Amino acid sequence: MNGTDAGAGEQYTADPAGGERLRRWRMVLGGGEADGTGRALTGRDAAMDAALGALYGEAGSRRPSGARSAGLGGSAPNVARWLGDIRTYFPSSVVQVMQRDAIERLGLAALLLEPEMLEAVEPDVHLVGTLLSLNKAMPETTKETARAVVRKVVEQLEKKLATRTRATLTGALDRSARISRPRHHDIDWDRTIRANLKNYLPEYRTVVPERLIGYGRAAQSVKKEVILCIDQSGSMAASVVYASVFGAVLASMRSIATRLVVFDTAVVDLTDQLDDPVDVLFGTQLGGGTDINRALAYCQSKITRPADTVVVLISDLYEGGIRNEMLKRVAAMKGAGVEFVTLLALSDEGAPAYDREHAAALAALGAPAFACTPDLFPEVMAAALEKRPLPTP
Predict the structure, then answer these.
(1) E strand residue ranges, 282-386
(2) What is the DSSP pairing of strand 206-207 with strand 200-201?
(3) 344-366 pLDDT, tens per residue?
């Protein structure tokens, strides 16, 4: 029997590629009279379709025969069951997107205050941001579970980002500390020889070191100071998570003195909690207004070595304080020798909505504002430490 005289069932067998295309279209269109595929789903496909329909379909529009109806209802057990289903049927990256959509589309944030819900979710940066925004409303019975979820994400991020960050910044610090007239015991002989190979004298089988390269004697002392100034308004949730992790990594480096400051209309210094980024995150309060000028005034008051200080402002620049004073502070810090970096976001999502007028004003002061991914952040910091142009995207 061939594809020409086969019935419907045999035709699918004879043309598996066409059948798979039909199946995918059916999953996309969601069933009902309008999909036009005529394809019925069974087994695992039907269960996947029901999970999608519960989130993205109108009531009943994606309900395959015999499957549960669309919608998650308002109860935690229904949502927890659905969370378990999507983790069964979809890869982790898709699960995280669906969880985010469920929180936004179906208003499920309040249900995350229940421990059984938190145990069912797939932890990611966006979920951490949601939990932090709910922190003050979180009952005591949920807080330990929430901290465990946040710690899991923080540990994953540290594992991914810490080694490369330390290596990149250590190299930058070494280069910035290099001196051209070192004392004898401070000479870096490997670099000195490479730099003077052109002065090799074959008759004496030696290199004449016309230029000595070495490092300062205080190689293990604090070389640079970094102040992370983080806007904790609700739109900056992912940036707060990444900045807290990077702050902990920087604080672990003896040659960098790191200060972490978060702000809305008030300013909170969380430097003494930098040994545990989970404590830092639970010390923030996402939401509220923004007073960048007040935050920068505090940071400015903590600068003792301007030429060796990098200030990183992470904000969408929607200023609720005094705009002109904010710009004057930035100009004063740069005039004193501070390296000033403005990041509109520190996340994988690209540039958020931001105040373009303030961004242009900062750029005119020599502090261009741009969004930065976590992967690029070590390179940005290395450039700032070495006082060279920033690798803006």
Answers:
(1) 309-314, 339-346, 369-372
(2) antiparallel
(3) 999 988 777 899 999 999 999 99
Residue 214 backbone phi and psi in degrees, to 5: -160, -170
181-225 per-position pLDDT tens digit: 566 666 777 777 887 888 888 888 888 877 776 655 444 456 899
Strands (DSSP E) found in the chain: 178-179, 200-201, 206-207, 214-215, 224-231, 256-263, 267-269, 309-314, 339-346, 369-372
Q: Which of 304, 376, 294 is nearest to 341 (CA)?
A: 376
Taking each helix axis from N to C end, the angle separating 16-29 and 43-56, rounded to the nearest 10 degrees, works out to 30
Q: Of 287, 314, 268, which Cα lies nearest the Cα of 133?
A: 287
At residue 333, what are phi and psi to the nearest 5 degrees? -65, -45
Contact 90, 52 (CB under 8 A): no
Q: For residues 203 and 290, is the Cβ–Cβ distance under 8 A?
A: no
> Taking 60 as the threshold, does the pLDDT of residue 60 lie above it?
no
Secondary structure of residue 85 in the 3-state scheme: helix
Q: How far is CA 229 from the centre of its chain?
A: 15
Position 68 scores a pLDDT of 36
Query: What would the pLDDT profile of 367-389 be if each residue is shown by its tens digit?
Result: 989 999 999 999 999 999 988 99
- What confidence category does residue 5 fall into, taking pLDDT thresholds of 50, 70 and 90? very low
Phi, psi of 180 (to 5 degrees): -95, -10
Contact 169, 176 (CB under 8 A): no
Show the tokens assigned to 282.
Answer: 């639970």
Other CB atoms within a 10 A radius of the CB of residue 93 amount to 9
Please give the Cα distance from 198 to 336 (Å, whole number).
40
pTM: 0.68
Q: Encoding tokens for residue 121?
A: 């979710």
Task: Report the chain's C-alpha Rg in angstroms.
Answer: 28
Please say whether the beta carbons of 142 and 150 come within 8 A: no
Count Cα atoms within 13 angstroms, Cβ side, for 324. Answer: 0
